[in-house]
Amino acid sequence: MSTKENKNTTQDKGLSQVMPDEKRKWGSIAFIWIGTMICIPMLMVGGIFAGALTLSSILVATVIGFAIACLLMILGGIVGAELGLNATMTSTRAFGLTGANFTMALVIFVCETGWFAVQTATCAMAFNTLMEAAGVSFPFWASCVIWGAVMCVTAVYGIKWMSVLNYIAVPLLIIMCAYGGYHAINTAGWDSISSAVTQNAMSMPVAISTVIGLFALGITCNADYTRYCKSRADVTKACLLGVLPAAVLMIMVGAIMALGTGNYDVTSMFAGLGLPILAMLVLILATWTTNTGNAYMSGLAVCKMFSLKDKQRPIVTILVGIIGIVVAIAGLADALNAFITVLGAVVPPIMGIIIADYWVICKGKAENWKPQRGINWVGIIAWICGGGFALLEALQVVTVFSSALDGIIIGFIVYIVLYKLLAKTKAIGQGEMTIEEATANVK
Question: DSSP label at 371?
Fold first, then answer.
């Protein structure tokens, strides 16, 4: 870590390039992802699956979905590590420096702020349940304000504080989730849980697409964290060990708890574990570790949209948090299923395009990658094709396999084909520029 960062921990990088001497150990990045995986939406999806899939099918869908997610994370994360740039900046070749503002940056801002609102509302409900157990009635809006502010402050201090929080929280969260699964099995009996659903009411492609959609933003924004990784091997270890084991654990625990308690509301599930006060505290901690990442990534996206300097990132993050708190109070959490459906359709194709640009067009070499001035219409068109088709699949207008995966594949193929056809035209942008030029006004 540089001397500057040691003096002021709020000066986490915004849009400017991470230099080799600012790289960090892969374990700290893995722990951030573990903390992100151990979250309420994972348990919620496990609960949703519990009513529609057998336990073995839930396991298969989760492993396949997150294996695909990890592959995409690694490919996209290596781009960030080798360029030293965050997710929105890595899209400035595939979409152009200007075009990235209206595609990746805008989508990440809207989606991450939405997730921040969902998590804030969930945390507020858990806190209110805890207060009710103590005989205190607390307004929902006040809980949203308090906990939204707490989580936002952690995000303001960036990667370093997020790592510290996760080193403390992750072991506690794993113990509580393991206890939740054990308590459900001990209460209802394994035979009752395993035989609760004997026939799948949801198809495997839909289940896999739901898993990928749940983590669509994590896939797309991975470079925000992996830009601090030192090598491709470090990116691979951080993604695989940070995501896959924790993700499978959480969704399976969510399903087992839902079947064991007969309750699909996460707050009620935790409250019924026999240790309500401890359970609510852990539930709050789970949302805290995840929501810091939502605010952090959303703040970076806003910095890209308006080409703001690194020193303005903390203020932007606070403003993003305020917006998320207002949305939480308005009740976005009630629309979680629809929200995941839309995310799973329109977000993943962005990463398919960035992967195609770096690994195919630039042959996986950082020296071949340079931001494009203006708008790269090839990337925009490829995103419209991939995201549009995926959305049609999500709405069941057409059906191939998985909306999330199909959108990625279409975006990937369309970008490569159109780029090769239009490589010598203005369609791919208004000329190359260096990374130094692209980040010159943001330091």
Answer: P
pLDDT digits (tens, 9 = 90+) for 281-299: 777 777 787 788 888 888 8
pLDDT tens profile 319-358: 999 999 998 898 765 665 566 667 667 888 999 999 999 9
Q: How far apart are CA 86 and CA 348, in angstroms?
A: 17
Q: Residue 409 above 80 pLDDT? A: yes
Structural domains of the chain sorted by starting position, each given as residue range(s) with its CATH number in brackets: 13-437 (1.10.4160.10)
Res. 50: pLDDT tops 50: yes
Listed residue (204, 175, 156, 426) closest to 312, CA to CA: 156
230: helix, strand or coil:
coil
Q: Is 432 helix (H, G, I), strand (E, B) or coil?
A: strand
Q: Cα–Cα distances in Å, from 414 out to 10, 83, 153, 377, 385?
A: 40, 24, 41, 12, 8
Give me the half-sphere count of Cα atoms (radius 13 Å) on the Cβ side of residue 329.
15
Q: How would you write 46-115 as a 3-class SS string?
A: HHHHHCCCCHHHHHHHHHHHHHHHHHHHHHHHHHHHHHCCCHHHHCCCCCCCCHHHHHHHHHHHHHHHHH
Tell me, letter by letter, the H, E, C secondary structure of 385-409: HHHHHHHHHHCCCCCCCCHHHHHHH
Token readout for 232 is 């491709």
CA dist 170 and 164 (Å) reads: 10
Degrees, nearest 5: CA angle 357-352-219: 120
